[in-house]
Amino acid sequence: MTLTELRYIVAVARERHFGRAAEACHVSQPTLSVAIKKLEEELSSQIFERTSAEVALTANGALIVQQAQRVLEEAKALKHLAKHGQDPLAGPVRLGAIYTIGPYLLPSLVRVARETLPHAPLFLEENFTVRLLEMLRQGNLDCAVLADPFPSVGLDSIDLYDEPFLVAIPKGHSWEQLAEIGHEELKEQNTLLLGAGHCFRDHVLGVCPELNRFGGNSMDGEQRNFEGSSLETIRQMVAGGIGITVLPRTSVTDPKTQEGLIRYLPFAAPIPTRRVSLVWRKSYPRVALMKILAQTIQACELPGVRAI
Question: What is the mean pLDDT of residues 49-64?
Fold first, then answer.
């Protein structure tokens, strides 16, 4: 049994395809297939069910792959100790962030981390929550900045900050002179939402569940909700007078600024918020680094958040 064979079965479990797994491992498909067959014979256990349509894990194969991931993680930790001695703060860190946090946190974080973690360069990844969790569990990321809630099985975390939401309206809107907006009032407006897969969309629907009723076209043919691919796309749609939206506070530099085509209004109490956390695998050995990284994130210049 070799580490290479373990990498192969983890890759096939991730890709659910021998060809794509071989490509990801930079080997030919026959080389990968022969190595996996050899490992199955050595273990006297079938790891994968092979059909013309797909590759699936057997029940025992799923357990073997989980253990293989742990072995690979420990092997990586051993290499880190050999290269950097006993210093957990030395060596690169692969950090993920969801799309609605990354643009507003990462530039400041990279700048501050040069001082707090000078020997731990950050390699950054933006993606959806579900994809970042998958990459974490497969060892392709060391940690990720996520918004609650998220599945926590097999993960450790540090809560970083609570972030309030704001309502963005176009200049000249009938709400322009209001001091605050109630949750229930959102359902009366053309509301711009992020598309499916963005957890912030779920947060907004949690604030005003009635928005679910207005997806697509209403009975009178008027489209009540629109979907965008990013917060910045939606912000430009608001500026164009298409509708209103809800934004996380960090995406707004100064909500009191009334210049331009957008106005920002606070919610009436209770103000909706999201909790943001730093997350890593329980088996990840550099816990001391995670604690300093969390402190570094909390030291970043993030407008309007409450550090925990």
Answer: 86
For the question of whether the overall pTM of this predicted structure is more than 0.90, the answer is: no
pLDDT for the residue numbered 85 = 57
The pLDDT of 31-58, averaged and rounded, is 90
Does the pLDDT value for residue 284 go beyond 70?
A: yes
Token pair for 56 = 């699936």
Query: Which pairs count as long-range contacts for 110-117, CB under 8 Å and 24+ apart, including other chains?
Result: 112/296, 112/299, 112/300, 113/293, 113/296, 116/292, 116/295, 116/296, 116/299, 117/89, 117/93, 117/289, 117/292, 117/293, 117/296
Indicate if the pLDDT at residue 221 is higher than 70: no
Using CB atoms within 10 Å of the CB of residue 24, give its burial: 0 to 12 exposed, 13 to 18 middle, 19+ buried: middle
Give dist(CA 143, CA 137) in Å, integer.
10
- Residue 61's pLDDT band, with cuts at 50, 70 and 90, is very high
| HSE, side-chain direction, 13 A CA sphere, residue 174 | 5
| C-alpha span between 269 and 67 (Å, rounded) | 48
Q: In the structure encoding, which two tokens stand for residue 193, read together?
A: 């939402």
CA 18/CA 197 separation, integer angstroms: 27
The pair phi, psi for residue 156, each rounded to 5°, is -110, 160
**Sequence-ordered alpha helix ranges (H) in the chain:** 3-15, 18-25, 29-43, 59-84, 102-116, 129-137, 199-207, 231-239, 287-298
In contact, 166 and 267? CB cutoff 8 Å: yes
**Cα end-to-end span (Å), the chain:** 46
Contact 207, 248 (CB under 8 A): no
The confidence band for 259, taking pLDDT boundaries of 50, 70 and 90, is: low
